[in-house]
Amino acid sequence: MKNLAFIIYTNLKINFIITIGDLMSKNMFILLIFTVFLLCSYFSFITIKYPYIGIEVKASQNKQLEISNVIPNGMAEYVGLRKGDIILKIDGDIPEKHKSVKKYNLVEQANNIIVERNGNVLKYNAQSQFNRQQFFIHTIFPLFSLVLSILFSTFLFKYTRNENVSMILIMLFQLYGISFFAGTASARAELFAQFFSISCLLSIPLLLFHFLFLYFRNIIYSLLAFISLKNYI
Description:
Blueprint (H helix, E strand, L loop, with lengths): L1 H22 L2 H24 L5 E5 L5 E6 L4 H5 L6 E5 L8 H6 L1 E2 L4 E6 L2 E6 L6 H29 L5 H21 L4 H42 L1
Antiparallel strand pairs: 1-2, 1-4, 2-3, 3-5, 5-6
Helix pairs in contact: 1-7, 2-5, 2-6, 5-6, 6-7
């Protein structure tokens, strides 16, 4: 009876591993990397086109739009905008019509900002200067993380794709790589990037838990198989 149980158990384990491994075919892996590349390209386009401004606004007592906070390392701080400035226009229109102001009380995805400070009207261009620190954190670092995630995923696909935990780990690496790009675009009040960032935050812990579950289950399976084989011998 022990031997029969061991044979059935071993067959079930092998069939399960083959089924999972077959899901990650070469074409599917290429499609996954291509999809990741497209998403990261879109998020990079938003990140480069619209520098992170970092302005929070509120309505003043005079019903004017006032800068309530200038977030550190944003272009607003970089070009000289200050807390308490009254925003008169954003890209040639009244600030209340700007989409990020209406939705989030933030000023993002804007080029020209006209403010009033101590009775003086000042004009600022968020893209007039190059913020090296922001470029490194929001573009170079995510790109480096993505390259690493693709390299690790390629290694796993090449050498361990028939193991049932490999596909989960590959998906985990790819979500991790995309999440940096989605996060930087999300900071610019990009709706799709915000949705994707939330999805990544929810999916990564679940995939990690699933990976750990499968990994330790395989260890237990191997241990039970070893014990059964030892008793058989």
